[in-house]
User: What shape does this take?
Amino acid sequence: MTIDPQPRPDSPEHLRLRLWVRLLRAVRPIESELRRRLAREFGFTLPKFDVMAALARREAGMTMTEVSRLLMVSNGNVTGLVDRLMRYEGEQILPGDRLPPAGAGGLLLNAMNIAPELEAEFNDWYDKEHIPALAAVPGVLCARRFRGTSGNRKYVALYHLAAPDVVESDEWKQARQSDWTSRLQPHFRDHLRLVLRRSVRGR
Assistant: This one.
């Protein structure tokens, strides 16, 4: 039987191993503190934050499989996390009781809170300027707004798109810019933006 010799204390292999062990010891307390702060200050878990950070890397959106590969976890784990992130109860406040269109190829979700002292102006801006401007962009099939009764973000807007890349068009970028938008945007809180692509199983 052949036994591989142990690396010498001053060998590169041994030094790399010692460095790895020290880094691991340093990371664990940092991760524990990060978990505590996310839970205490934002009501968030570290796995949920990892999913959000992964989605934020690509504005055009990612599939569940792409997210799971990036995070090196199973599709089932990612699906469960996204289900919990997306759980939301509220009333549709614009446009009335309109239902979503069938066959949309993409979806943009914007969720946020707003500084309480600006809430009335925020709703005026959203209803009178922002939603009408974006709803008129070519490729936008429907735009809807919701006011939440639960969850950590009070306001949600859903834009049903012919394709996810509608939000990259010049028309979209122009429609979302205005002096009113620029004045309110710094007061958005807990802003969540997701661009999703329709996926059909078996294709």
Remarks:
- The radius of gyration is 23 Å.
- The chain has a mean pLDDT of 83.
- Residues 13-43 form one domain.
